[in-house]
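name: query_chain
kind: protein
chains: 1
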Amino acid sequence: MKKYAIFDLDDTLLDFTRGETEGVTAILNQYGAPDVSAAMDTYLTINHGIWQRIEQGADRGPLLDTRFARTFAAFGMTVDGPTIEAQYKSMLNHNYYTLPGATAFLTQLTQAGVTVIAGTNGTKSVQESRLAGSGIAAFFDQIYISEDVGYDKPDQRFFAPIKAAYPAMTATNTLMVGDSLRSDIQGAINAGLANVWFNPHHTANPAACRPTFEADSYAGLTQLILA
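structure:
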């Protein structure tokens, strides 16, 4: 059995995609995007590029303030990017959706004696609000959020305070679990930690990084962590 399990949050335990889709769609409708479906695709492309830059060390605030302005600009519209960004973050603060089975899964791990830790990229106020509202915050021994830590996964420095807080943590008694190859899995590799790619949608792996394990369900994760 593993002693420690470090979990990404978004689309690993929390249903970020559902909240994102609802929030962005509401913004696009409110500000009159001419084609909401096309605008959503544009937003997702722009947002993906922004988070790539953040994960490479760029300052998150100024970049995030541009994502809606750039989306609307693609359709010939001018909007106040920072204002809409603040509105969207307020929506995300109330995205309390968890993935089906997440609460039961965390309950099983903690009852078995696993030290459960959250290690997530994101904005501190948003992630803390979502954790509290979803009801899963109490499962975590400690919570590490990249805005607070000062580094985003996959930077190995993201994991430095976690390792400092848990000096008994090793590559063999710990698993990092996440849905993102680029941030979670590569981050764990950079930090010398075994890892599990949580891949319930059976997405193909086009990346050079190779996870230690792969699981498509909480049952599969349970077997890996409690074996």
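note: The mean pLDDT is 96.
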